[in-house]
Write a structure and sequence with these properties.
The complex is a heterodimer of chains A (256) and B (143). With 256 residues, chain A is mainly α. Chain B is elongated, with a radius of gyration of 23 Å. The longest helix of chain B has 27 residues. Chain B starts with a helix and ends with a helix. Chain B has a 5-stranded mixed barrel with strand order 1-3-4-6-5. With 143 residues, chain B is α+β, with helices and mostly antiparallel strands. The chains are: A mainly alpha (256), B alpha+beta (143). At the A-B interface, helix 4, helix 7 and helix 8 of A face helix 1, strand 6 and helix 3 of B.
């Protein structure tokens, strides 16, 4: 059992579009209900129940959107790049479609992080935008996502576009640790990290708990959107196959 | 056993990752000063910052150094990094989070007396988030 897990055969089988379509179809109702529940709980808790910050007052509450979306913007880039690498090596169709889905969702997350940062920055810093290392490297991340999205769609030969997109995604991975460490490596206006892996976090527990709920909620919401995007890609690319035609026929029977 | 063709593709991917990392590390090393958003007061005092051109300085607003003019929005304060401090003169509205003992980043030109004539004052927030009662408790305990 353990050996078969490490042989990655299970992952290889899951990369069959048909199998992924049926498994994700069962996962979607769960992902939808749990992520909506967590996001509702986290927002209610963070925006209404958690205490205000001693210095920032209520404006600090933007972290309940800003921090989770930044997490997913960075982690999502690795998901996209790893999928691209798997596609390059094993030429599995599903990994390239995953990469394409992760690119659009990651770009939205990065935009959300930049946007919430800007509207927080105006009252707190005194400006919407600064060209410090953190904010600038995050803007580069947005352009990398948009670049991968454009590259995938730029060629008439789809396979060529996917391979080029994967290479661009891989090259761009060097930006992710730079974003993460920028606040330590250079003098920036953006504050250093509050949530730390190796030492105690510098946020009060009453404010931390709803933040963790929001981060978990964002991860599940991310998984949900990936499933939805990926299923649309599968149906589009596999529309000529017999299993998709059967599926459509059954759907029509049900509704008709 | 991994297929030789796949092994070769993996090697290519590693090569791409390594060369991209080396190139970026070299660029980051070259930009190490230019990528800084501001100079520290020490850098300004020992003459590492250029005079007469617009630059940014960052540090903590020295407690008790903030002076406000009676009739105008003119203010002056000291910015310190613990070892040196620089006097800042500014006329305008300060951001909400600006206060003594907190970090700030100011943009302006330095004259030959090491006074910075600021055209913009930004507040820098720290990484701590504390409810008001807890912050008050810390203050009373003198932490």
């Amino acid at each position: 059992m353990i050996r078969s897990f490490f042989s990655l055969k299970w992952l290889y089988r899951l990369s069959s579009p048909k199998l992924f379509y049926s498994i994700s179809g069962k996962a979607i109702p769960w992902l939808l209900s749990v992520s909506v529940a967590l996001l509702t709980l986290g927002l209610f808790w963070g925006l209404l129940v958690a205490p205000p910050d001693a210095r920032q007052g209520d404006s600090f509450r933007i972290i309940y959107i800003h921090v989770p979306s930044s997490f997913l913007a960075l982690a999502g880039y690795y998901f996209m790049a790893v999928a691209g690498a798997v596609g390059l090596v094993w030429r599995t169709k599903l990994s390239f479609w995953f990469m394409k889905s992760a690119a659009s969702i990651g770009a939205s997350m990065t935009f959300l992080a930049l946007f919430t940062g800007a509207i927080w920055g105006r009252p707190s810093w005194g400006t919407y935008w600064v060209w410090d290392a953190r904010v600038t490297s995050m803007l580069i991340l947005l352009f990398l996502y948009l670049g991968v999205m454009a590259m995938i769609r730029a060629f008439d030969n789809k396979e060529y576009g996917q391979k080029n997109g994967a290479i661009l995604a891989l090259v761009g991975t060097v930006n992710v640790p730079i974003i993460y460490k920028s606040v330590d490596w250079w003098h920036t206006l953006h504050q250093p990290a509050t949530l730390k892996l190796t030492s105690e976090s510098t946020i009060h527990i009453d404010m931390l708990q709803p933040l963790l709920v929001m981060i978990l909620g964002f991860y599940l919401f991310y998984a949900l959107t990936i499933c939805l995007f990926l299923r649309a890609e599968i149906l589009y690319h596999e529309q000529a196959t017999s299993w998709v035609k059967d599926l459509c026929a059954r759907r029509q029977e049900k509704s008709g | 056993m991994i297929h030789p063709l796949r092994k070769q593709r993996m090697q290519w991917i590693c090569l791409i990752l390594i060369s991209a990392s080396v190139a970026t590390a070299l660029i980051a090393y070259m930009l190490r000063q230019n990528a800084n958003f501001f100079y520290t007061p020490s850098q300004i005092v020992i003459g590492q910052a250029p005079l007469g051109v617009s630059l940014r300085a960052g540090g903590e607003v020295v407690v008790g150094s903030l002076k406000r003019a009676q009739q105008s929005l003119a203010i002056e304060f000291l910015v310190s990094d613990g070892s040196h401090s620089v006097k800042v003169k500014y006329e305008g509205i300060l951001p909400d989070l600006f206060s003594e003992g907190q970090s700030t980043v100011v943009t302006g030109k330095i004259d030959d007396q090491n006074t910075l004539h600021a055209v913009q004052v930004l507040a820098k927030h720290d990484e701590n988030y504390t409810p008001p009662e807890i912050a008050e408790m810390y203050e009373n305990q003198g932490i």
